[in-house]
What does this fold into?
Amino acid sequence: MMARSFYLYNTLSHQKELFKPVHPGMVGMYVCGPTVYGDAHLGHARPGITYDVLFRLFKKLGYKVRYVRNITDVGHLENDADTGEDKIAKKARLEQVEPMEVVQTYTLRYHEAMRRLNVLPPSIEPRASGHIIEQIALVKKILDAGYAYESNGSIYFDVAKYDEKHHYGILSGRNLEDTREGTRNLDGQDDKHSPLDFALWKKAAPEHIMHWPSPWSEGFPGWHLECSAMSEKYLGEVFDIHGGGMDLMFPHHECELAQNTASRGQGGVHYWMHNNMITIKGQKMGKSLGNFITLSELFTGNNQVLDQAYTPMTIRFFILQAHYRSPLDFSNEALQAAEKGYKRMMQAAKDVKNLPVTADAVPNAEVAALTDRVYEALCDDLNTPIALSVLFDAVRLVNSVKDKSLKINAEDRQILALLFTDVLQDVLGLQDETTDATSGKLVDGLIGMVVEQRRQAKAAKDWATSDRIRDQLKALGVQIKDTKDGCEWTIE
It folds into this structure.
């Protein structure tokens, strides 16, 4: 299947480009993971799911993929600044624990949230604190290249000097003068030659908890440094895709691109990829705005803005309904609509296995076209909403066969079945939450036994027992529909 052409929007060129891997048959992906100082929230779900689908799609197309997603556990200061307190150290001080206890607690919670969303683990998940040696070596290279300077034990990147030969702002579409005008002088930044300069290494204040020895001071790396160092270590000086949220484009990825160019002589990334934000009533989600929703709150419904609890697959379906580069606005109505669409899709995926076939039925041209249509959408800059619309066409065809208004042959049924396994489950990562590996067979079996008891009660004209079983199942969220061929059940 690798013969399919894949087009990806490149933030650097601002256009869709034909994807050509650096190494034939091999894809190198680096995606910025979370700063682990709090519970995973709805904003974490979008990049997690977006790059998971990309990872799955490349594998389905036949590529070998090395997917690196980092964990930021040091050096990310408040408000993305070069002064102030480390986010993790602040959390540790408030909770009176070691910083690495904070890291471990919230890394495990993040992993559990991603697992529930059916996000596959990356190939490699490096931590910034485990790569201090590589980051110090990178600082030395940038110093040797003449694009950084030492000031009172800290090392800063010289943005103005870099901009003389390269364009600082090329990724985010800025120029140096506009950036300078939008930058204010902050207290405690007198060590810098310019407010635009950013820290590569910071000398630690006496009260700073996390620090390491270096040639310049006892200190810690700047936030932007870790991704340049770790992507090079695991993917090489040149690799295919660097992804992250749109909020990381500036300053994080812009600074990273400058570090790469200063130390390697080239940007090193062929395709920069950014997913858009999830908003609530048009506002970016944030604790300060009071519209912050953690994933655990979504799963339990324990947040005042939620009308109900939402399952992980409903959230995944909701996110995939919008193109990854488009903004996505949260509302209970939108999630409830996603819940209905997801259940309809899962029911068809279940029904397709038992569709009747007609041996002499003429091959259905619409069915035959579905596979190409869905992969054309996915290979066109990961257009998941169009892919879902194609799958809903498949749902319509399944239902038409089910209600006997359409006849198909065995080959058509196989095409439909593969769409729900190869695309819906394997690529889009949408699984039936009522039939997962741990409990699905048991649930299906038990409900089947109860439904069979109801059938026997009806056959014996024991209407009281039949009605009681129906009503009790309904109270548990199991809907029974009597048909002329027997009955069907679904979990609502």
